[in-house]
Amino acid sequence: MQMITIIGNLTRAPETRQVGDKSVCGFTVAVNRRKKPDGTQEADFFRVSAWGKTGEPCQKYLDKGRKVCVVGTVSAHAYAGQDGTPQASLEVFAQNVEFLSGNGGNGAGAAEGATDVTAEVQGDLPF
Asked: Which residues contact 29 (CB under 8 A, 6 or more apart)?
């Protein structure tokens, strides 16, 4: 079984939508890479889908800039960009989302204010 753990900051506020009779909260997490020797910083971007009870607190408490730890399975998708060049995206299907920063999103109080949001994994997942 493959699992991924990412820690990073939300790039925008989460959005919740209905898919049939289920709700899914979607957001993007930017994960910084190690700094290059010349001091430049790069990041990888992961789309996250938090279904049902996992997504409800994400929609309620997360916002742009908040630091999170997401554990789940990952799926890669290839597509053609607007200019026709091949692109790829990574989507994480969250099984556990832990809030690591307070409402300010600056990482302050990560140890005191961490909130663990875990959903029971059921057999009716959409993937």
From this structure: 6, 8, 9, 10, 11, 45, 46, 48, 68, 70, 92
